[in-house]
Design a protein that fits this description.
Elements: E1 2-11, E2 22-27, E3 30-38, E4 41-49, H1 59-70, H2 75-83, E5 90-95, E6 104-105, E7 108-109, H3 125-142, H4 146-175, H5 179-190
Antiparallel strand pairs: 1-4, 1-5, 2-3, 3-4, 6-7
Helix pairs in contact: 1-2, 3-4
Length: 191
């Protein structure tokens, strides 16, 4: 499952976007986050499912895509996108990857996104990288050699990370379920 995102951080204040809050809006296979990051700045992120990624030609085209996709989501959403200068918009992809069975080979090991990339839906990417670094350091400190340190590191981390990656993938998939399909499924369940 892949999704494309556009995001920016801009100076923007509105009475419907109070300080210290995250606003999450879900539409049909699209989502939008509006996050207060302090001092009158807001971070917005628009994401949608994509089967095939065709990068935009320039920043103006990126802004136009966001306005086409989210501009009718209300005055506040339209205003924050319109206020954003095209050169402030970042575009990229979110990928889910199947868990790896090993992160180490010889005297090299991986941690963080290099070992276990996951979508941001569970909010565990940075946390898990910090955990990896802590556990890896402890394993190096307590092991007689680097190879056994890496084995101990993997034994301590692989299962926990697989759970996080799977949870993240399910969360990401749920973002892009059709609103129409959810309504149909809920009606069938309630019948």
């Amino acid at each position: 499952l892949n999704s494309i995102f556009w995001r920016a951080v801009i100076k923007f204040e509105h009475e419907l976007l109070p300080s210290n809050q995250l606003t999450f809006i879900k539409g049909d296979q699209k989502i939008l986050f509006l996050l207060d990051v302090g001092n009158g700045y807001k971070c917005w992120t628009a994401r949608t499912f994509c089967e095939q990624y065709l990068p935009t030609i320039n920043k103006i085209e990126a802004k136009e895509k966001v306005l086409q996709g989210w501009g009718n989501w209300g005055e506040v959403v339209r205003n924050i996108i319109e206020t954003t200068l095209p050169e402030e918009i970042l575009e990229g992809l979110v990928f889910d990857h199947l868990p790896l069975s090993t992160w180490s080979k010889g005297r090299v090991t991986l941690l963080g996104d290099a070992a276990h990339p996951m979508s941001p839906s569970a909010g565990q990417g940075a946390n898990s990288a910090f955990e990896d670094a802590f556990i890896l350091a402890k394993c190096i400190e307590l092991s007689p050699n680097i190879e056994s340190a890496f084995t101990n590191y993997e034994n301590n981390r692989l299962e926990r990370i697989k759970i996080m990656q799977n949870h993240s993938a399910i969360g990401e998939e749920n973002y892009y379920k059709s609103v129409k399909n959810e309504s149909t499924n809920n009606n069938q369940t309630n019948s």
